[in-house]
Write a structure and sequence with these properties.
- The structure is a single chain.
- It is built from two helices and eight strands, in the order βαββββαβββ.
- It is of the alpha/beta class and 136 residues long.
- The strands form two sheets. The protein has a four-stranded mixed beta sheet with strand order 1-4-3-2, covered by helices on one side.
- α1 runs antiparallel to α2.
- The longest helix is centred in the N-terminal third of the chain and has 12 residues.
- The termini are far apart.
- The model has no long low-confidence stretch (mean pLDDT 89).
- This is VOC family protein.
- It comes from Streptomyces tibetensis.
């Protein structure tokens, strides 16, 4: 297998809902494994996600999990997930779905560098940047 770099998101109890949401946004195959499936069937977090992975036909891989008990994550930490390319319809479709129920900090519109760009935070607190390249 070739090396790859992809986001791994951490959630405070709603990883299942978040990863299912991202499957609705991007399509693809979602594999979710709970703590219960990894030997913690009687634990209070047995139904929470220990590891989730979404792989799409566009070549995206997004991973995520719920924090184990006693660990907290800070939503909105200093990161953003960036989507970029030149397929206007595809990227606008992702934007609409990601921003629905979330907040928009920079509207998706033409910017001074010539591309269409926007920033939003989805309903799970994950910040996204979308850049649609345009021909000069």
């Amino acid at each position: 297998m070739a090396s790859r770099l992809n986001p791994y998101l951490t959630f405070n109890g709603d990883a299942r809902q978040a990863m299912e949401f991202y499957k609705e946004v991007f399509g693809g195959t979602l594999d979710l494994k709970s703590y219960g499936e990894f030997g913690q069937a009687d634990a209070p977090n047995a139904d929470k996600i220990m590891h989730g992975m979404l792989e799409t036909t566009s070549g995206f891989t997004l991973m995520g999990a719920d924090n184990p008990p006693g660990m907290q994550s800070e939503q909105g930490s200093p990161f953003s997930v960036s989507l970029s390319g030149d397929d206007d319809a595809e990227l606008r479709g992702y934007w609409v779905k990601l921003s629905e129920g979330g907040s928009v900090s920079v509207p998706l519109e033409k910017q001074m560098w010539g591309d269409v760009f926007g920033m939003c935070t989805d309903r799970f607190g994950v910040p996204w940047m979308v850049n649609i390249s345009t021909e000069s």
